Amino acid sequence: MAHPSQLGFQDAASPLMEELLHFHDHALMIVFLISVLVLYIIVAMVTAKVTNMFILDSQEIEIVWTVLPAAILILIALPSLRILYLMDEINDPHLTIKAIGHQWYWSYEYTDYEDLGFDSYMIPTQDLAPGQFRLLETDHRMVVPMESPVRVLVTAEDVLHSWAVPSLGVKMDAVPGRLNQTAFIAARPGVYYGQCSEICGANHSFMPIVVEAVPLQHFENWSSMMLEDA
């Protein structure tokens, strides 16, 4: 959950988000070192009283400042490509959920069950219970079992939407007539908030996403209760 004046990412709640945070720190450290080096060179060139002929015209230094940036790009590209392929890996999901974007709410269908689906609307500010978050709470949460691979099929009924939950490292466009898929594993129980991340009309800011990760036994009890009420 993000908080006011937060500078970094939200705490990772999935293995994939942990990988993304590690890569962010890795790339940020490289950018920091490059910035310090460039700043030092600029200050040295401006303040130095003498010049060195071998710095102004030297084939060796030209080789260094050609090879070094290439090596740095490889250090950034290899872990980036690894995470990119990890984000596309969907192996033997335990649960499949279809998320459908509408103007302006989400619908969820648990495709492994015969008749388990519901619409998820934002709770108006005047109806919020104490402790609930304005513009983020929904009347029905997407409940998933923790420590289980969950596949989410994302589409839209009307215009472009985007299903995004930062803590889980998930963001997938919802395109009318197209079925995109993503996957995540909730590493611990909790409630994770997201929002539509594609401008989709007047009420774009009012279609939040709430994912609740619970132990498997609790999920089975919840699904049984939902099927009885259907």
Blueprint (SSEs and pairs):
Layout: H1 15-47, H2 53-56, H3 59-88, E1 95-102, E2 105-110, E3 117-120, E4 142-145, E5 149-156, E6 161-165, E7 170-174, E8 180-185, E9 190-196, E10 208-214, H4 216-229
Parallel strand pairs: 1-5, 4-10
Antiparallel strand pairs: 1-2, 2-3, 5-8, 6-7, 6-9, 9-10
Characterization of this structure:
This protein has 230 residues and is α+β, with helices and mostly antiparallel strands. It folds into 2 domains: 13-86, Orthogonal Bundle (Helix Hairpins); 93-227, Cupredoxins -  blue copper proteins (Immunoglobulin-like, Sandwich). It is built from 4 helices and 10 strands. The strands form 2 sheets. A 5-stranded mixed sheet has the order 3-2-1-5-8, with no helix packed on it. A 5-stranded mixed sheet has the order 4-10-9-6-7. It is elongated and about 85 Å long. 20% of the residues are buried. The mean pLDDT is 91. Its main location: mitochondrion. Keywords: Copper, Electron transport, Magnesium, Membrane, Metal-binding, Mitochondrion, Mitochondrion inner membrane, Respiratory chain, Translocase, Transmembrane, Transmembrane helix, Transport. It is found in: Mitochondrion inner membrane. It is a multi-pass membrane protein. The chain crosses the membrane at residues 27-51, 63-85.
